[in-house]
Amino acid sequence: FVNRENFCSNDNGFIILSVTGGYGNTINWYTGSCVGSYVGSGSLLTIQSPTVTTTFYSNWSTPTCGISQCVSVTVHVIQLPIQATSASVDTGNFCSSYSGNITLSISGGFGDIIGWYSGACPGSGAAIPVGTGNNLVIVAPNITTIYYGRWESTVCGVTQCVSIPVVVNPPPSGMIGSNSPICAGNSISLTAGGGS
Prior knowledge:
The chain is an all-beta fold. It contains no helices and 19 strands. Strands 3, 4, 6, 7 and 8 form a five-stranded antiparallel sheet that branches. The protein has a five-stranded mixed sheet with strand order 11-17-16-13-14, with no helix packed on it. A hairpin with a 5-residue loop joins strand 3 and strand 4 (37-41). The radius of gyration is 32 Å and the shape is rod-shaped.
């Protein structure tokens, strides 16, 4: 048995391995296999928490009559999320009149879910949740916006963000023209055109 498991890989505590039943002089503990890498001995063995999921094996031993068969217990360890290497968008430069969707993606990293935000990465400013998941489809923004993505774990924290800007170009403005240059005392004619 083990007193606890399902902790994060950066856990700095201890676990207690124990067995019930059987008989012998000494209980020995191993990893890797029965009589693999020696860990320690005792019916209640306290050791540092492992950093990866590990199976521990134990047996009874006597000086003259050998060892018993092993029993085992697996201690499950949850890995920390790993930061993504980059973020991307399928359509990142368009006019403000664009009414379609964009797809946000990240590459690399590891975790339970990918969280997307605009405005800032959570913890560094006013972050606005956008959605979750890789290849996230959202409505295109109507102003230039930076999106922030990160891997998140349900129990073991979050990574730093990677970001991708989406550039939205404003519509062209109107133009004013004249028939200048003119001579002093004459009138001019101004015309406006274009714009939207």
